[in-house]
């Protein structure tokens, strides 16, 4: 039982990191979209590109399933919801 609790904590930590990266990607994307920060800012552009490269393999299968909604991408929201569902299910298994 202790090993499952440790595994749950590791999965929860990875999930929290992914959610924070998704939020950071969203905020930087908004700052670029509304020209608050210029895309010529090399540091933020490289940071944003690195986050996109990390998250793209996660978003790609979901984007194939979701209908095309134009400029709005709902795949980050779906990933966050799915990650939270996984944590809830694992927590329920751990408690039972």
Note the topology.
Elements lengths: L1 H32 L8 H24 L9 H21 L1
Number of domains: 1
Query: Could you give a short account of the major beta sheet?
Result: none
Report the principal-axis shape: elongated
How many distinct beta strands?
A: 0
What percentage of the residues does DSSP assign to strands (E)?
A: under 5%
The helix count comes to 3
Reading the helices and strands in chain order gives HHH
Q: Termini distance? A: 11 Å
Q: If you compute it from the alpha carbons, what radius of gyration comes out, rounded to the nearest whole angstrom?
A: 16 Å
Secondary-structure-based class equals mainly alpha
Low-confidence stretches: none
How much helix is in the residues?
over 70%
Please give a structural write-up.
With 96 residues, the chain is an all-alpha fold. The protein has one domain. Helices cover 80% and strands 0% of the residues. It has 3 helices and no strands. The longest helix has 32 residues. It is elongated. The mean pLDDT is 93.
């Amino acid at each position: 039982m202790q090993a499952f609790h440790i595994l749950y904590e590791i999965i929860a930590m990875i999930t929290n990191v992914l959610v924070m990266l998704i939020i950071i990607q969203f905020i930087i994307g908004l700052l670029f979209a509304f020209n608050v920060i210029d895309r010529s800012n090399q540091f933020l552009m490289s940071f944003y590109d690195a986050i996109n490269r990390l998250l793209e393999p996660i978003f790609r299968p979901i984007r194939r399933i979701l209908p095309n909604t134009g400029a709005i991408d709902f795949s980050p929201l779906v990933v966050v919801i799915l990650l939270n569902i996984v944590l809830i299910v694992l927590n329920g298994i751990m408690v039972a």
